[in-house]
Amino acid sequence: MSILNDNQKYGLISIIFHWAMAVIVLITFLLGKNLQDNFENYYAILALHNSFGILIFILAIFRITWKFINIKPDALPNKIIFMKLASLSHIVFYVIFFVMPFTGYLLTNLQGDIVSFFGTSLPNILERNSDLKYYVHDIHFYLGNILLLILGLHILGALYHHIILKDNTLRRITLMKLNK
Fold it and tell me: Is 7 domain-assigned?
């Protein structure tokens, strides 16, 4: 397997970026959900949630950079609506991968808490503000819900292509061999 993309399949680096992002998003989401009910470990969970959120932001920068310096496999023969939906979902993913960590950073600042990245404290850019905190929290929360919705549709689309259409859509972003 090539580390670079080719006309048929994504390369190892793109595959690692894709699946690492999936795992990190899942971990970050689960930590965020656990924040709501776990007052004993709130600050430890918040620190991990923030760290993984920042990691999503950093990984998104690397992924976009990689997209621009590497070729994209040729589009599979598909209905135009599927291609437009896939393209739109990727745009929404990247917007959320940048905006959601930023709102999380702001929210932590507005709560008066310290943002850390795996133990390294980051500077606060805003002072504690209880009123503004609720607005930023709502944005962060709703972005999370939109992310879950788009992620669910993304997974359903991949399964539809793999199980129903039996094309190479899912195989191209995994280590599976392509169908002929």
Answer: no
Cα separation, 137 vs 129, in Å, equals 12
3-class state of residue 120 by DSSP: strand
In a domain, 164, yes or no: yes
| Per-residue confidence band for 109, with pLDDT thresholds at 50, 70 and 90 | very high
Counting the structural domains of the chain, the total is: 1
Q: At what angle do helices 12-35 and 130-159 cross, to 10 degrees?
A: 130
What is the CA angle 85-89-92, rounded to 5? 140
Backbone angles phi, psi at 121, to 5 degrees: -70, 135
Query: Is the CB of residue 31 less than 8 Å from the CB of residue 63?
Result: no
Residue 39 lies in a domain: yes
Phi first, then psi, for residue 35 (nearest 5°) are: -60, -35
Segment 76-91 mean pLDDT:
88
pLDDT, tens digit (0-9, with 9 covering 90-100), for 62-73: 999 999 999 999
Q: What is the token pair recorded at 82? A: 């599927």
